[in-house]
UniProtKB/TrEMBL annotation:
PROSITE patterns: HTH_GNTR. SUPFAM superfamilies: PLP-dependent transferases, Winged helix' DNA-binding domain. It holds the Pfam family Aminotran_1_2. The lineage of its organism: Bacteria, Pseudomonadati, Pseudomonadota, Gammaproteobacteria, Alteromonadales. The keyword Transcription applies. It comes from the Bacteria. In the C-terminal section; belongs to the class-I pyridoxal-phosphate-dependent aminotransferase family. Residues 4-72 form the HTH gntR-type domain. This is HTH gntR-type domain-containing protein. InterPro entries: Aminotransferase_I/II_large, HTH_trans_reg/aminotransferase, PyrdxlP-dep_Trfase, PyrdxlP-dep_Trfase_major, PyrdxlP-dep_Trfase_small, Tscrpt_reg_HTH_GntR, WH-like_DNA-bd_sf, WH_DNA-bd_sf.
């Protein structure tokens, strides 16, 4: 019988210690050098041990800080997406909605401590020093130096996109709004996934569009119903998120992304892809967008730095495909270009490798945050609760039968605690028992106190 490797033996001892609370959540482990001395092993064995335990979900490595306990591995609590027949519907909004307060559990926003403000400031300073034409009008399509930097960045992720295919916008939502205006008219029907980000539903409502909501599934999206809707109804465009979708955090498979691109071609229906969370992957692989599988230009791909880097940048991009000329004409008329100094600064930031380093840093933190939030919530919430387990992004989607989350949100607001009720992510009441939490916030003692109050209010309402 083969003997268990030394690093696995030590790894199991470490796991036992963690499960027996010898180390508390978010507590650093002994340094690798100390671990070597304690167990009289080589650095190679110590590193193999820590990486083995990390692969099982107990600890996380942070550059220049070491390894930290992130809790017991969380198991997927089965979340059952509601199933229904997809049909066109006019909006019944506006619904009661709290103000979008920054840096709360209600927003999908990075903690201020995770923003790379120092290097961003340095890039802005350098951009302002070396460009004689800095203060003139920006190019309507966006500065080439930024589009070229973005093109190289995406290519290194396995998604080749020429700079000439890209346009620069005032953020992702701005790109989406232009895409809606280019492809649809008042009272046209737009297909969306269900649940759908509340900001997109608000935008569609303000633009007087109708919607068809397509049910989500464990594996992504009900593509059979999507094709039936494209065949049966006059759908002018589809507005979808394929990666770490807001509010659930769930993603489509590559097979589904390819199928959606094929459906767009078959039915000659534009796909407006809101891909703002794509780069926030909790694994080491950045997923591909639907646009990767687009061969005939029917996919309009939209993204930005707002979620991955800083909400205040308001700088995004779009690859409009066959709608490039119409999209550029609209940009030229409506915006006269995007902030030039900021574009040049972001090109500098990307070209120096800072953006890629930042993404690695942020994604490690978000993965650790997810484990900490899940560990705390799963221990305290009612037994019949379920939480969708995201593979990326910065939100958690919770479902608790019989809970009225609009009432919960209003009661919490009186205590200056904010969540996003599930009713905001749908045109019906099918998600009234759900709510969304921001895990972009560092789980400090103050945040844990807020979570405790939320849990107590849930138990009071259900009692």
């Amino acid at each position: 019988m083969s003997k268990t490797a030394k690093y696995k033996q030590l790894g199991q001892q470490l796991i036992n210690n963690i499960e027996n609370n010898a180390y508390s959540i978010d507590e650093p482990l002994p340094s690798l050098r100390t671990f070597c001395t304690l167990h009289q092993i080589s650095m190679t064995t110590a590193l193999a041990c820590y990486r083995y335990v990390e692969s099982l979900g107990y600890i996380t490595a942070f550059p220049k800080k070491g390894y930290f306990v992130t809790g017991l591995p969380t198991t997927q609590q089965h979340y059952q997406f509601p199933q229904f027949k997809a049909e066109p519907a006019s909006f019944v909004r506006p619904k009661s909605q709290l103000k979008n307060l920054s840096q709360t559990l209600a927003t999908a926003e990075l903690d201020s401590t995770l923003i790379d403000s120092k290097r961003l400031s340095q890039s802005l300073t350098q951009a302002c020093k070396h460009h004689d034409q800095l203060w003139g009008y920006a190019s309507p399509e966006g500065e080439y130096v930024l589009r070229h930097a973005l093109s190289n960045h995406f290519t290194h992720q396995g998604f080749a996109l020429p700079a000439s295919d890209l346009l620069v916008t005032h953020g992702c939502l701005d790109a989406v709004q232009h895409a809606i205006s280019v492809t649809t008219n008042h009272n046209d029907v737009i297909l969306v996934s269900s649940p759908c980000y509340s900001g997109l539903l608000d935008l569609l409502c303000s633009l007087n569009r109708q919607v068809i909501e397509i049910p989500s599934t464990d594996n992504g999206l009900d593509l059979e119903q999507m094709e039936n809707a494209l065949r049966q109804y006059s759908v002018s465009a589809c507005l979808l998120s394929a990666n770490h979708q807001n509010p659930t955090g769930h993603s489509l498979t590559n097979t589904q992304k390819q199928k959606i691109a094929e459906l767009a071609h078959t039915y000659q229906t534009p796909i407006i892809e809101d891909d703002v969370f794509r780069e926030l992957s909790h694994t080491k692989v950045t997923p591909l967008p639907i646009k990767h599988y687009d061969r005939t230009g029917w996919v309009i791909w939209c993204g930005s730095f707002s979620k991955s880097l800083s909400a205040g940048l308001r700088l995004g991009w779009c690859a409009p495909g066959r709608f490039f000329d119409a999209f550029l004409k609209q940009l030229s008329v409506r915006t006269l270009g995007v902030n030039k100094p900021l574009q040049l600064a972001m090109a500098n930031y990307i070209n120096k490798g800072h953006y890629q380093q930042h993404l690695k840093h942020v994604n490690q933190h978000l993965c650790a945050h997810k484990n900490l939030y899940l560990h705390y919530l799963q221990e305290q919430l009612p037994n019949n609760s379920s939480i969708y387990m995201p593979s990326g992004g910065m939100v958690l989607w919770l479902a608790i039968p019989a809970l009225n989350t609009e009432q919960l949100a209003m009661k919490l607001a009186h205590q200056h605690i904010y969540i996003k009720s599930g009713s905001l992510f749908c045109n019906t009441n099918r998600y009234d028992h759900c709510f969304r939490l921001n895990i972009g916030l560092v789980p400090t003692d103050e945040v844990k106190t807020q979570l405790t109050i939320i849990i107590n209010e849930i138990k009071i309402q259900l009692s």
